[in-house]
Amino acid sequence: MHLLVHLPSAPAGAQLEMHLLVHFQVHQQVHNWKCTCWCTSQVHQQVHFHIAPAHLA
Prior knowledge:
It is built from no helices and 5 strands. By secondary structure, it is mainly β.
């Protein structure tokens, strides 16, 4: 899955917005929302974001 991620705290020289092809673990949350949590070595930070089930289709 390609994700457009905005990283305001990205290190100098890094794109603030970049397309990342990532593997991620999906956890079922309340109200049928999915929460994906992954860490990229490029930015050395953990990024959390919530995606509606309709967007995962």
